[in-house]
Write a structure and sequence with these properties.
Strand order of the largest sheet: 1-2-3
Keywords: Transferase
CATH architecture of the largest domain: Orthogonal Bundle
Strand content: under 5%
Number of helices: 18
Radius of gyration: 23 Å
CATH topology of the largest domain: Citrate Synthase, domain 1
Catalytic activity: oxaloacetate + acetyl-CoA + H2O = citrate + CoA + H(+)
Family: Belongs to the citrate synthase family.
Protein name: Citrate synthase
Number of strands: 3
Order of helices and strands: HHEEEHHHHHHHHHHHHHHHH
Structural class: mainly alpha
Pathway: Carbohydrate metabolism; tricarboxylic acid cycle; isocitrate from oxaloacetate: step 1/2
Bound molecules: acetyl coenzyme *A, oxaloacetate ion
């Protein structure tokens, strides 16, 4: 039998072996996608870290959509972001301190923490050489491989004591930007034939500034760096239930090592329904800019959005990327904040016409998805809707949009890993699957 045919045959058989009728989920009371009937998530854990609020409940328990709110360690995200915007101050390191420890640092603690992160940004020579050697064009994949390799160079990789977990967490938060910047520079050199620059992080600079420096040398402004800093803050944490953080919690519950668990989280975030949506949104926007001739014509926009929903255009997935969320209903507070920031930056960079078009796509995208799926649950733009447009205006390449998300979310992942391994009453996460296949009698090989 030809090998290609065998693969086709095996795959064809999957059409039957994968059949699970949708109604069976209701019949057996299975929570499809770990979701209740009303779309809310099944409660699977308790946490002191992030709190994601997208709805309230009436007295009879009915889900009541509400404006989205996000809390980091009890503080509302907007209350953390507004002073930074007002004081024109960098804050990612401060938020990382808060998320890891539960406390906002005082000035002395913050200065020491910043220095600690800065000291740890440099990669050891072997890791740099290994990144140069790693082939591949996907930076998320290279990031995951580099993280797994950090296990080899860690003198104490399997120790899950609190002190060791904190040391590893700080090293990962500090090294992610350097790994991503080096991996991108090497990709640009080998795939696009550009000169190769390996710039080491500078002392006394924040993570956002150093990241831009490693990627773009001096070709960035103070405003660009502060925008990136805010994007890092806004993406740093989202409770225990988002797919990548839950992946980190599930793997951590087996007491595996930090690097295995974080590599799994990276794999989850890469998916286009999760962190990978930021590239999909930007590419979808480029596509719409090309195919819609009048950027102000609502009928033309709606017609095209319905073509997306009907799987006739763009990637034919039937999705309008950047719209919809598992928890948020009326608004995602991060998208609200990013929409405002994108507007200010667009004015600065002379891209207001595109910004106005993107806003119309949001407005009409929400309407079309709501009408198309005939659900009463409201949908809204999510975090990924405006983030890519901001990166583009800062002059960052799309290959690193999802890696930048990982560079922020590593803070939430490590905070949740530490919590998963330290709360009283912890237990390996192990849900159940109901098997719905009838038993079969074994047939000897010679009789098949
Ligand atoms: C950082 C982040 O991860 S934010 C999310 C980034 N992802 C995206 O932007 C991708 C586009 N959006 C989506 O695919 C979804 O809204 C998700 C994955 C974010 C949430 O999914 P769910 O929690 O299942 O959404 P919800 O319960 O509100 O809606 C489910 C139904 O509406 C559909 N739907 C939801 N959002 C969209 C959308 N943007 N475009 C088309 N259909 C959609 C789903 O496909 C699903 O249909 P089905 O029941 O026929 O399978
Ligand atoms: O919570 C989710 O499902 C996805 C999300 O917005 C995030 O991880 O930031």
């Amino acid at each position: 039998m030809k090998k290609e045919y065998l693969i086709y045959k095996l795959s064809d058989e999957v059409k039957n072996s994968c059949k699970i009728p949708r109604e069976a989920f209701g019949e057996y009371g299975v929570k499809r996608g770990l979701r209740n009937e009303d779309g809310s998530g099944v409660l699977v854990g308790l946490t002191n870290i992030g709190n994601v609020i997208g709805y309230e409940r009436d007295d009879d328990g009915t889900l009541k959509p509400s404006a989205g709110k996000l809390y980091y360690r009890g503080y509302e995200l907007n209350d953390l972001v507004e002073p930074l915007l007002h004081e024109k101050r960098f804050g990612f390191e401060e938020i990382a301190y808060l998320l890891l420890s539960g406390q906002l640092p005082d000035e002395e603690e913050l200065a020491a923490f910043r220095e600690l992160l800065n000291d740890n940004m440099l990669l050891d020579h072997r890791t740099t050489v290994n990144i140069i050697d790693l082939e591949g064009s996907n930076i998320m994949n290279i990031l995951a491989r580099s993280v797994l390799e950090m296990y080899t160079y860690d003198p104490n990789p399997d120790d899950i004591s609190r002190d060791n977990l904190m040391r590893q967490s700080i090293e990962l938060i500090a090294k992610f930007p350097t790994i991503i910047a080096y991996a991108y520079n090497i990709y640009r050199h080998s795939v696009q034939g550009r000169s190769l620059h390996i710039r080491h992080p500078l002392e006394g600079k924040t993570i956002a500034e150093n990241f831009l420096y490693m990627i773009k040398h001096e070709d960035y402004t103070e405003l660009d760096a502060r925008m990136l800093d805010l994007l890092l803050i806004i993406q740093a944490e989202h409770g225990g239930g988002n797919n990548s953080t839950f992946t980190v919690r599930v793997t951590s519950s087996t007491r595996t090592d930090t690097y295995s668990s974080i590599a799994a989280g990276i794999g989850s975030l890469k998916g286009p329904l999760h962190g990978g949506a930021n590239i999909k949104v930007v590419n979808m926007f480029h596509h719409l800019k090309e195919y819609i001739s009048d950027w102000k014509n609502i009928d033309e926009i709606d017609t095209y959005l319905y073509r997306l929903l009907n799987k006739e255009a763009y990637d034919k997935s039937g999705l309008i990327y950047g719209i919809g969320h598992a928890v948020y209903t009326m608004s995602d507070p991060r998208a609200v904040q990013l929409k405002k920031l994108a507007g200010e930056l667009a004015k600065e960079k002379g891209r207001e016409e595109e910004y106005e078009f993107l806003k119309l796509i949001e407005q009409e995208g929400v309407k079309c998805v709501t009408a198309f799926r005939k659900s009463t649950k409201p949908v809204c733009a999510n975090l990924d809707f405006y983030s890519g447009f901001i990166y583009e205006m800062i002059g960052l390449p799309e290959e690193i949009y999802t890696p930048i998300f990982a560079m922020a979310r590593i803070v939430g992942w490590t905070a949740h890993r530490i919590e998963e391994l330290n709360f009283e009453g912890r237990r390996i996460i192990r849900p159940a699957y109901k098997n719905i296949l009838s038993p079969k009698a074994y047939v000897p090989l010679s009789e098949r």
